[in-house]
Amino acid sequence: MEGENEKLRLQYSLDLPKPVYEILENDFWVLENVLPFMLTGIEEGEPLKFSASTSIYVRSGRGRAEINLRSYEFVAPCIVNIRAGEILVNMEISDDFAGSFMVFSEGFSTQLVTLLGGVTHLWKYRNLRLFKIPGELIGEFNAFYDLMNRIQQNPKLQNKDRIYFHQTAAFFYMTVARCISMESESEQDEAKESNWLSDRFLILVQKYYKKERFLKFYADKLNVSTKYLSKTVKQQTGVSAAELITRHVILEAKVLLKSSNLNVQQISVLLNFQSQSLFGKYFKTATGISPKDFRNS
Questions:
Q1: Interatomic CA distance for residues 257 and 154, integer angstroms
Q2: In a 3-state reduction of DSSP, which class is residue 15?
Q3: pLDDT tens-place string over residues 154-166
Q4: Is this model's pTM higher than 0.85 or not?
Q5: What is the biggest distance separating any 2 CA atoms in the chain, rounded to whole angstroms?
Q6: Residue 101 and residue 123: Cα distance in Å, rounded?
């Protein structure tokens, strides 16, 4: 199966200036002035899996999206962070939306984390899905994104990866750390305390859902009873813990069915089902349609 996994390719319907696989051959890539018509390929309900870490600078407008099954609403000016391997679905944006996308390879992100490891606010940045940009820092964000775009568009520049890296590191020191420090730490700590169990549960689900679909595994990991875990997650998220596990499995299955070259049997193995038949029953129970019919729809 490893040989088959190596051949797996995901295709995306974003209207980008070049294929995603070419973009991700680079350590860093930026797209300025993303407007609503450029995102029409992301149909409502159609899952989009990100192969690299992506930072979206929302310059104007507003919107909402589900990222790894959690709903987020964003209003300009703000940053939306999506990590590699995460899935976006049900994205809605206003007609006046405008934004800039930055895509980072795993190597770029690792080097940046290594360099910035001692920065006070780095852990917050890595865990923040969404953060607002204070009015006094908008000019600095605009200048940084414009600079990175000019670097990308300049064919005469050599060692662009190094330029991208050092400019990004400097921007974090000068601006991003200040931006995060302006966030209300008391509000973040309060939210973190009140939802710690569901947050930790979701982190574990994102890590193990391909292999573990039973609630007891996660309850044991969290040192709580299945009853307490189910009750608490339901109270904190509005969705039962078992349903969240199912949703992660089904969302991944939908991405693979629609956007990969794997057949149904290979997908069932990848998701750790004992047989294609069991996978088919699981999928149909959750969606009302068979994997084959979903792929052909």
A1: 39
A2: coil
A3: 989 888 888 988 9
A4: no
A5: 62
A6: 22
